[in-house]
Structure formats: structure tokens, C-alpha cells
């Protein structure tokens, strides 16, 4: 992540920070409050994005999920950010031919 932050520093424009909404999911409702949000935010499980996602318009993002394989939105697809909204990122394909809306996505480790 350190290299991503360094690259972002050199890009023009304002930085937008997206924060994860972390919660502990348990079948036992009494365990739900056992872990404070601050502790959950400090964890970085393998295969999950970090707690904070920092972006600027023009930066390149990579999908971590298959969103719409028929449209080419697959795990590993790279896109260029064109607009940053509260819960949606607008991005275009690297070749600039298509624009996509990327919604906020829940990540649940298995």
C-alpha cells in the first residue's frame, strides 16, 4: 500500500477517502459487540482491501471481484477513475471506450 500512497501524492487533484464499515458477524448475537470497530479496522485479512481506500480522479484502480464478466468487469480488470461520489466510483476502461459505475461492495471473508 505504501507505493500506492506515494503515487497518489504526486497526482493532481483532491483525494477522496473511502472507509470500510467493519462489523463482526456471528451466529451468536451476544458476540456481536465483543470486538470494537477500531480493532476490526486495524485488521488486514488476506484477500480483503484495507480499511481506507484513497483515490483521486485519474488514478488507476483494479477490481477485486467479478462484477459483470459479460461486460469485462472481472477480478483484475484495471480502470481509470473519472468521478468520485459518496458510494459510487465512476471509471472508464483503460482504452476509454466504456464507462462503468462501481458501487460500494460488501466484502465478507469465508
Automatic annotation (TrEMBL):
Transmembrane segments: none annotated. InterPro entries: P-loop_NTPase (IPR027417), Pif1-like_2B_dom (IPR049163). SUPFAM superfamilies: P-loop containing nucleoside triphosphate hydrolases. It comes from the Eukaryota. Residues 38-84 form the DNA helicase Pif1-like 2B domain. Pfam families: Pif1_2B_dom. This is DNA helicase Pif1-like 2B domain-containing protein.
